Amino acid sequence: MTTTPENIETVAAESDDRAVAVATRKQVRKEQRRLLFRSPSFIIGTIIIGFWVLSGLWPELLDRFDPKASVPGVSPRTPPGDGTWWGTDRLGRDVYSRVVHGARPILIAAPAATVIAAFFGTLLGLFTGYFRGWVDEIISRILEAILSIPAILLAIVIVFTFGATTPVIIGTIGFLFIPAIARTVRAATLAEAQLDYVTAAQMRGERSLFIIGREIFPNIVGVVIVEVTVRLGYAIFTLATLAFLGLSGGNATDPNWGLDVAQNYQQVVAEVWWPTVFPALAIGTLVIGVNLMADSIDEALKS
Fold this sequence. Notes:
This protein is mostly helical. The chain has a single domain (25-302), classed as MetI-like fold. 74% of the residues lie in helices and 0% in strands. Helix 5 packs across helix 7, helix 6 (151-162) packs across helix 7 (166-193) and helix 7 (166-193) runs antiparallel to helix 9 (208-244). The radius of gyration is 25 Å and the shape is elongated.
């Protein structure tokens, strides 16, 4: 192509527009971070999640007894306060120590499953939303078929088929959440693909992969972040449900919130509530912390 003053001016104008767009985007993200870090919901959620992360990484800093052994000198089903903070379970094990140590398996499996779902769901959503046509039709129909099956039922079938191991459980939960993330990302991509900056990139002759990765994705990354935090809460509940059903992927004596609830909930009618209530509260508080963070991130991105 012959270089002319008009071409040079056009290229310079496009470069200036891109520089302004990048600077504006950085300023917007800076303001969003400022609002996020001042949000009470984000602060509370961070504190809750931080406590459970500390429990998962260094439980020995918080526990009092061996979570797998009976507490010396304390009878089984001892209520809270009599030598133990949260009482003992039917085998005489310290409930507090089991709750603290029970954070580790769920804080490993839930984020891992969410990352798997986010990676593949985002890729599918970007490609179906940008290319549309037969690619969108085929992938969307497959995703809708998966979504039509109750998630926990499909999870039980997959885990029973391939075995209740930790990798299988993580992969199963990740697989279950791919369609939901893909649909959300697809909707955001469809909206972005109609905007002028995408049309300008196409007219410049940019490749589709470049447009998807460098133009569209940075503008929907907020949607992906919100979706990931929401799915993380669902992943925690799904893991706890599978553990409650005996599909924990570990030893039956290992500390596990869902498994501990399953082993002790029948004693609630006999007023032995603490071995069930405290693990259930642990699940609830972790999910609440994740949801508080998700809501505050969503509000910051929409501001």
